[in-house]
Write a structure and sequence with these properties.
The longest helix has 23 residues. It contains twelve helices and 14 strands. The strands form four sheets. Strands 8, 9, 10, 11 and 12 form a five-stranded mixed sheet that branches. Strands 3-1-7-5 form a four-stranded mixed sheet, with no helix packed on it. A three-stranded antiparallel sheet has the order 2-4-6, with no helix packed on it. The chain is of the alpha+beta class and 412 residues long. The chain folds into three domains: 68 residues; 150 residues, no CATH class; 139 residues. Bound molecules: zinc ion. Zinc ion binds next to helix 5 and helix 7.
């Protein structure tokens, strides 16, 4: 059948040529000197493309885009809001805030901003009256400065009080908080020194009226004098942060150092004491705040401890402990052994899984900016559907020759 088509096509071609030849044989008019206007060639309508331009939190863009003809020049300018800086574009490699584009296809651009480093002048005061586990004052200061150096911005006045306590005496104590009672080994001089440090720090960094000052200070002194096993961060105001560690004899030296990193990270979590963020958290029965706060502190502590060369720390160690805690709850017949809450280790495993899944950037945990502007109740609030996957899967952990990782099917 195909072969038959060739002669037909040939006949048609010949006819067309003849026809056009015959047209030229009409009588030609006298030659004119006027050059004939060329027939206007209809130009095809130019291709059109869509530019979609939007912005993340912290700024605006000069245009939201639209439909443009191919080849058009479009200029887009990103302007940061007060307290933010422009950090680049998603959809372009340019780091300039003003971008000139030649339209050649559909394009989606997002202008990114991040909070400006507001201050690098946090105040850090360490009161360390008695060496704990042969860890020098210099080493604690180094733990502080290497942790602080990772922060995007620091605006805390941190008083850190670290001292040893002795052997376990009893569960609970002369306080409502869940600390246990240990032998007090600080001398009277050191205890009185802690009292005056606290008084001075509260006077300088808070607006507690003088009449109430000693009452407030005594709330903390009860722990010191009573031998409470504090491993605690107290957010006194948005920027006044108190870290108190009473380290029992039984605490391992690595745990001791890791606890210092963990508690200091809480001091860098800027929105912990923001009233508006607290209101959001309290109004939300499904809030993720507790486990995000604890998990980020512990994930940072484990990772930074490993960087500092502390043996038995790091992500595998974190997953090992988290799996152990989970299995213990399962063996006790707990109703929901996977539920995330104030357990820092299981929460840190959940944070780590968020990082591996791309649900949160590791950098925003490490620089503390996950705790700006209450992202834990907004972006990572209960309506973030990615977090349901995390809650359902964080405990799916494998061990291979002592190395703990998430099961590959949940990470991929
Ligand atoms: Zn904590």
């Amino acid at each position: 059948m195909k072969k038959l088509l060739f002669p037909k096509a040939f006949v048609l071609t010949v006819f067309l040529i003849l026809y056009s030849c015959s047209a030229e044989e009409e009588p030609t008019p006298p030659q004119s000197v006027v050059t004939p206007e060329p027939e206007p060639v209809p130009t095809p309508a130019p291709e059109q493309y869509t530019l979609t331009i939007s912005t993340g939190e912290g700024g605006t863009v000069s245009t939201e885009g639209g439909t443009y003809d191919e080849g058009m020049e479009v200029t887009v300018t990103a302007t940061s809001a007060e307290g933010y800086e422009f950090t680049g574009w998603t959809g372009s490699d340019s780091i300039q805030n003003s971008l000139s584009l030649t339209v050649s296809g559909d394009l989606t651009l997002v202008a990114n901003f991040s909070p400006e480093p507001v201050s690098s002048e946090d105040k850090f005061e360490l009161y360390y009256p008695l060496e704990v586990k042969e860890v020098s004052r210099t080493e604690i200061e180094n733990i502080y400065s290497t942790s602080a150096a990772k922060m995007n911005s620091r605006n805390a006045e941190i008083l850190t009080i670290v001292y040893p306590i002795g052997d376990f005496i009893s569960d609970g104590g002369d306080w409502d908080a869940g600390f246990s009672t240990f032998e007090t080994i600080l001398g009277a001089d050191a205890i009185s020194e802690i009292r005056s440090k606290l008084t001075e720090w509260f006077t300088t960094n808070t607006d507690i009226p003088d009449a109430f000052l000693s009452e407030v200070v005594e709330e903390y002194m009860v722990y010191v004098e009573g031998g409470a096993d504090l491993s605690s961060h107290f957010g006194v105001t948005e920027s006044a942060r108190l870290v108190m560690i009473g380290a029992p004899t039984s605490m391992g030296v690595i745990d001791f150092k890791k606890v210092i990193i963990h508690e200091l990270y809480h001091a860098f979590q800027q929105d912990l004491e923001s009233d508006s963020c607290r209101d959001l958290e309290e109004a939300n029965p499904d809030s993720n705040s507790k486990w995000l706060i604890e998990g980020a502190a512990e994930f940072f502590a484990q990772t930074h401890a490993e960087e500092l060369g502390f043996t038995g720390t790091g992500r595998s160690a974190l997953l090992e402990t988290a799996l152990g805690d989970y299995n213990e709850l399962v063996s006790e017949g707990a109703e929901s052994p996977a539920s995330l809450g104030p357990n820092a280790t299981t929460a840190a495993a959940a944070i780590y899984l968020m990082v591996l899944k791309g649900y949160v950037q590791e950098s925003v945990i490490f620089d503390g900016s996950l705790f700006y502007d209450c992202a834990r109740e907004n972006e990572y609030g209960s309506s973030n559907s990615n977090l349901q996957f995390i809650k359902d899967n964080w405990f799916k952990i494998n061990s291979d020759n002592g190395t703990y990782t998430f099961q590959s099917e949940i990470v991929n």
